[in-house]
Design brief:
UDP-N-acetylmuramoyl-L-alanine:D-glutamate ligase, Protein-Tyrosine Phosphatase, Chain A, eight-stranded mixed sheet, six-stranded mixed sheet, 15 helices
């Protein structure tokens, strides 16, 4: 499903962080967010990959699993998965119809604003709140053994933070969404640590000290035990790219990992630690199940090759660009490299290009149809003075063929929305 009138209407009202509205609405729905044991994943980067790996690992261990993630690349159905498959159009239509019926009754009972026609104003719930509620409702209907839920933004005030999780995680903390989350690592870490719950174990990825200090303090204050890399669990990769993981009595060697990039080693460590914690010490991870899960897991748009000349990555902040640069440094420098760059208006494209300067030869700026996308010309202006040539090229439909015409390697990055647009253009599903 590309769009739906209910979601289109809600999308006009942007992001509104806060829990009171969503909490009241979920109660009116019958509290579907409490129906399934939940693993809750936060992080600036990597949380989507961890969600996919956790779900794959749980399924391989015989646990039926649902996933809630965001944003989507091509179809909104991607945000809600049961046993690895996106919700169907028919199921999503039915879920949205049920949500609208309950929402209108709820709005009337709460005395919330009415439109000029007397119908409760649809803007009461945002796009993210509606899709999150639809996901909770779908999983409550399906009743999997576990739900893996990705935080949308931050954590403390995110609409997903009404779950009562069995395990939580913070994968990474980096600079992103500064207008909403704060200007530095400490501020952003405090928002992400807002998912900590008393008595609920929280798995951490390798956080920088300013973030780790804040997370430690908040977890201690809330009574959430922390599981730290190199202290409570260990993960590393050998020269062949195989994983080695240990946690307590669990020792796993030579695990294959399908997701490319050195950063996925740390993400896999978080995922394995979360699943081992969820299963409990009496159910150690099975080596064959873990090998099966990690060797087959897929996450579209993350260091994804769509042809020998086209690499797609959802890097959209400085830390993501640095991770992409590390991957590119490991590839042969045997042909010209073009960064096909699109960015949302709330991002810092200059810092992304600076991180990539040493591994690319030129930048072509573009834009997709998303309303937050910067025009290609404005994006090029923001890059004046960087260390590589920059050429504005208009909409992605024009820019992609132009970038590929040179016969080198094209790296499309800078925006998750751009990632979806490129996949659409080349027919990837």
């Amino acid at each position: 499903m590309r769009d739906h009138p209910v979601l289109s209407e809600a999308s006009r009202h942007g992001v509104r962080l806060g829990l009171n509205r969503m909490r009241s609405f979920l109660v009116a729905l019958g509290s579907p967010h409490l129906a399934v044991p939940t693993l809750h994943v936060a992080g600036t980067n990597g949380k989507g990959s961890v969600v996919r790996m956790v779900a794959s690992l749980l399924e391989a261990h015989g646990r039926s699993t649902g996933e809630l993630s965001s944003p989507h690349l091509q179809e909104v159905n991607e945000r809600i998965r049961y046993r690895g498959l996106p919700v169907s159009d028919a199921e999503l239509e039915a879920l949205l119809a049920e949500l609208v019926e309950v929402r209108d009754r709820w709005a009337a009972s709460e005395g919330l604003p009415q439109s000029p026609t007397g119908v409760p104003e649809a803007a009461l719930l945002t796009y993210f709140e509606l899709t999150t509620a639809a996901g909770f409702l779908h999983l409550a209907h399906q009743r999997p053994d576990a739900a893996v839920v990705e935080v949308g933004m931050g954590g403390r005030l995110d609409a997903t933070n009404l779950v009562c999780p069995a395990v939580t995680a913070i994968v990474t903390v980096g600079i992103d969404h500064t207008a909403e989350l704060g200007p530095d690592l400490g501020s952003i870490a405090a928002e992400k640590a807002g998912i900590a719950k008393a008595g609920v174990p929280m798995v951490l990825g390798p956080l920088e000290y300013p973030a780790l200090r804040v997370v430690r303090a908040m977890a201690a204050d809330r009574g959430a035990p922390l599981l730290l890399p190199d202290e409570h669990y260990r993960v590393a990769a050998d020269r062949a790219g195989h994983l080695h993981f240990s946690m307590g009595e669990t020792v796993l060697d030579e695990l294959p990992l399908a997701l490319p990039g050195a950063h996925q080693v740390h993400n896999a460590g978080v995922a394995l630690a979360m699943v081992q914690t969820f299963l409990g010490p009496d159910q150690p991870l099975d080596p064959q199940a873990c090998a099966q899960a990690l060797s087959t897991v897929h996450h579209a748009g993350r260091l994804e090759w769509l042809g020998p000349d086209l690499l797609l990555d959802a890097a959209h902040n400085p830390a993501g660009a640095a991770t992409l640069a590390a991957y590119l440094r490991g590839l042969p420098r045997d042909r010209p490299r073009t960064l096909l760059l699109g960015a949302s208006s709330d991002k810092d494209p200059r810092s992304m290009v600076v991180a990539l300067e040493g591994v690319i030869d030129r930048v072509i700026t573009t834009q997709c149809a998303h309303p937050r996308a910067l025009p290609a010309g404005s994006l090029a202006e923001a890059l004046v003075g960087v260390g590589v040539p920059v050429l504005p090229a208009g909409p992605i439909e024009q820019a992609l063929p132009l970038a590929r015409a040179g016969g080198g390697l094209v790296i499309a990055a800078g925006s998750i929305f751009l990632t979806g647009a490129v996949r659409e253009l080349v027919g990837a599903r």
